[in-house]
């Protein structure tokens, strides 16, 4: 269902009217985690000023340590919904478990399946039946074939509104958190008709790498970029070191404008 052999034309996925696909370069930005209404609104305003058309934000956070901030849960979703009302930005947010899909989908405009859940087949089936567009992040240890098969689980339930997100894979390299696999962008686009975007925030894990990695992804043909932003990264409860501040965002939007010739 997701193979390009069946659908030679590349697909466009619409998230509350916002297109992701060929001929557009969609910027999705927002806080890694929803912390407070004020922080989320400030991050959303930053995102909007930079030209973002979708707001990201985690209410359920998949943290390596059980002692790290786990997200505000449903309260975080309510904050996101309020910020959507305030800004008009549709929201993309992660769902961690199959039994929470219906509840998360009642707030979200796009459901995110994170790298750690890419092969959670029960979750994939549930999001496939939820009637909302899905952003499927590549598993950090997954091959492109496995990633596309995961997308197939969602598609099998009748949902072809799937955006693939390359967010870095595990390699022997320790200088970055993960290695952004730039080649995955054209490879996945040749094998599948689904849009492919990149996440330069979670792959590098470092603010200074976000812009170069975003550039690399765009030049490789990415249909969009998803980045973390925070009004005060030093106080962030999650992934502060990779969050962009206002001036980085200005650079990013300039980069997107300059590189749109490569679309
Ligand atoms: C995220 O986008 O908030 C996230 C946790 O990403 P990943 O699943 O790629 O680590």
From TrEMBL:
Domain DAHP synthetase I/KDSA stretches: 17-261
Keyword vocabulary terms for this entry: Transferase
Record-listed E.C. numbers: 2.5.1.54
Top EC class for this record: transferase
GO molecular function, one term: 3-deoxy-7-phosphoheptulonate synthase activity
Protein origin, superkingdom: Bacteria
Name the record gives this protein: 3-deoxy-7-phosphoheptulonate synthase
Residues of the full protein shown: 71 to 333 of 346
């Amino acid at each position: 269902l997701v193979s390009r052999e069946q659908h030679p034309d590349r697909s466009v996925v619409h998230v509350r009217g916002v297109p992701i696909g060929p001929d557009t370069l969609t910027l999705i930005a927002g806080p890694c985690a929803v912390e407070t209404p004020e922080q989320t609104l400030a991050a959303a305003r930053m995102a909007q000023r930079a030209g973002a058309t979708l707001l990201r934000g985690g209410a359920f956070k998949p943290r390596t340590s059980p002692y790290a901030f786990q997200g505000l849960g449903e309260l975080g979703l309510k904050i996101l919904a309020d910020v959507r009302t305030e800004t008009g930005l549709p929201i993309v947010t992660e769902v961690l478990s199959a039994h929470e899909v219906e509840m998360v989908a009642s707030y979200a405009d796009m459901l995110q399946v994170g790298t750690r859940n890419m092969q959670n087949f029960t979750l994939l089936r549930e999001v496939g039946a939820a009637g909302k567009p899905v952003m499927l992040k590549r598993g950090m240890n997954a091959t492109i074939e496995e990633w596309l098969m995961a997308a197939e689980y969602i598609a099998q339930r009748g949902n072809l509104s799937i955006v693939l997100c390359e967010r870095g894979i595990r390699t022997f390299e320790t200088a970055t958190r993960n290695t952004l696999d730039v080649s995955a962008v054209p490879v996945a686009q040749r094998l599948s008709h689904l849009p492919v975007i990149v996440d330069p925030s979670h792959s590098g894990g470092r603010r200074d790498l976000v812009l170069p990695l975003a550039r690399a992804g765009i030049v490789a043909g990415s249909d969009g970029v998803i980045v973390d932003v925070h009004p005060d990264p030093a106080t962030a409860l999650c992934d502060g070191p990779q969050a962009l501040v206002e001036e980085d965002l200005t650079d990013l939007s300039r980069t997107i404008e300059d590189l749109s010739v490569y679309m």
